[in-house]
DNA sequence: CAGTGGTCTAGACCACGTG
DNA sequence: ACGTGGTCTAGACCACTGC
C-alpha cells in the first residue's frame, strides 16, 4: 500500500500556506538526513514521489530541484536521482582550495596524525555550539606538498557526533567522506576565517621555515544538514608559489 | 508590431537542439549586456517575453529563472523583473569580505587615491588578457578602518574599457557600481588568490606596522558578463582582530 | 482593481542510460 | 525496449505591488 502524506494545501484556512514543493523538499531532506536513503542510493523516481505525496509531477520535480541546488542529490538523466555521496575526489575539489601557482590544485599528503579526546576549550565550545561539559576529538596532522610539510591542521569535532572516530586505525587524507560514510554526517558547506600570522617556534620547526615567517591561518567551521556545526579546524599554511583560492559571486 | 524571433526548435534536423529556454536566456543576456535594458529598469513581463519569442509562458519563465540564478536580474512578485543594479551597499556585502572579529563587516574608508595611466606590465597583461601594447588605468589607495589605515589597494583596469575613468574627480568607496553606471561593465564574480607575505618598508610605513609584519595579500580578478576579465586588484591587509571571509559550498 | 511574478496541474514528447 | 530525468505547452489560480 502506497505511503500517502498529508500536506497543507494552499486553500487551507490556517494561513499556513508554505508552498507544497517546499514542504515536500523538507520531507525529502529529512528522509536523507535520517539515513532512510543512503549516500549513492537512488531516491524514488519523480512520478513515484508525485504519487506518494499526491501532487502533480511538476511539483515533485520542483522539490527535487531544490535538493539538487543544495547539492543533497545528483540527477542523472536516464538513470535516476541519487543521494550525494562524498568521495575523496569530490571533497578535494569542493573544499580543499589550495593551488600551486604553476600546476593547479595541490594534492596534499599527510603525516604524523595524532588523535586525542579532551574537554572542549572555550573556542571549541563557541565555534561548535557546545555546552560547558562537552568533549571533543582532536586530530592533529601535518600536510605535505611534494613530500615536504606545508600545512599544520588542528581539527576538532564533538565527541557526541563522532563516537568511535578516536579509535580509528589511521586518518585518511579527506575527512568529509569518512564523516558521511561512518558517522552519517553530511557536510554541506564551510566558512573560513583567514588571517596572516607570524610562525612561532614550533610551527616554524614543523614547516621548516624561519620563526616569524608569514603564514596563512585559516579558522574553518563545517556545517552539516540543518546548518549544524560539526567541525572546527585551524590550518597554518606556508604558501610558497602557492595560494588559497576564494570566489565571490 | 510585435518583435518575433526565430529559435531552433527541438524538432529541427540540424542536431542543434540547445533547449529553447537557454537560447532565450542568451538573447536576454545580450539585451542586458548591450544596454538595451539598463540597470534598475524592468524587463518585459513574462507573458510578453513568451509572446515575443513564441513560446509557452513556462519556457519564458524558465529563461528568466536562469538570469535570476546568475544574478543578472531581480524578480519582485507583483512588481516585475528588474536588471540587477549594483549599489554601494550591495557591492560591499557581496564583494567586500573583511570582518571585524567582534563587530561584523568592516565599513572601510578611503584615503590618498591616485590615478595614473600606463602601459600594462606583464602581470596585468596576463591577468587581464591584454596584448603587448595595451594600456591600463591604475588606481592606488589606502583603505581605513576606524580611521586608521589597514589595507593598500592597487587596482588595474584596461584603459580600452574604462575611457574617462582616469579623469574622475575622486574615486568612490565602491567601484563596481561606478563601473556599471559609467562604463557599462557589469561585474558578476571575483576570484581571489590569497597568500601571506611580510610587510616591506613602504607597506609597513603606510600601514603603521613594523617591517616584516605578516600581511594578507589578495590578488583578485573581477569578471563581467561573458566571463570577461575587467579588473585586477592587489590588496595588502593588516588584519588586527579582523579576518577575511571565504565560503565553500 | 489590474497586472505582476509564484505555484500547481496534466499531458505530450525528447534525450539519455541501462539492461 | 523501457524507464529515467529534461523540455515544453496551456491553463488555472494564488500572493503580492502599485495605482
How would you describe this structure to a colleague?
The structure is a homodimer of 249-residue chains. Chain A has a six-stranded antiparallel beta sheet with strand order 5-6-7-10-9-8. A three-stranded antiparallel beta sheet of chain A has the order 4-3-11, with no helix packed on it. Chain A has a two-stranded antiparallel sheet with strand order 1-2. Chain A contains seven helices and eleven strands. The model of chain A is unreliable at 11-15 (pLDDT under 50). Chain A is of the alpha+beta class and 249 residues long. In chain A, a hairpin with a 3-residue loop joins strand 3 and strand 4. In chain A, helix 1 packs across helix 3. The A-B interface holds A 71, 94-95, 97, 99, 188-198, 212-216, 219, 237, 239, 242-249 and B 71, 94-95, 97, 99, 188-198, 212-216, 219, 237, 239, 242-249.
Keywords:
homodimer; 11 strands; DNA-binding; 7 helices; 249 residues; six-stranded antiparallel sheet; alpha+beta
Q: Topology, please?
A:
Two copies of one chain form a homodimer.
Chain A (H helix, E strand, L loop, with lengths): L19 H14 L12 H8 L3 H13 L3 E4 L3 E4 L4 H8 L2 E3 L3 E2 L3 E11 L2 H7 L6 E11 L2 E11 L17 H8 L3 E12 L2 H7 L6 E11 L3 E10 L4 E7 L1
Antiparallel strand pairs in A: 1-2, 3-4, 3-11, 5-6, 6-7, 7-10, 8-9, 9-10
Helix pairs in contact in A: 1-3, 2-3
Chain A binds a DNA duplex (19 and 19 nucleotides) through helix 3.
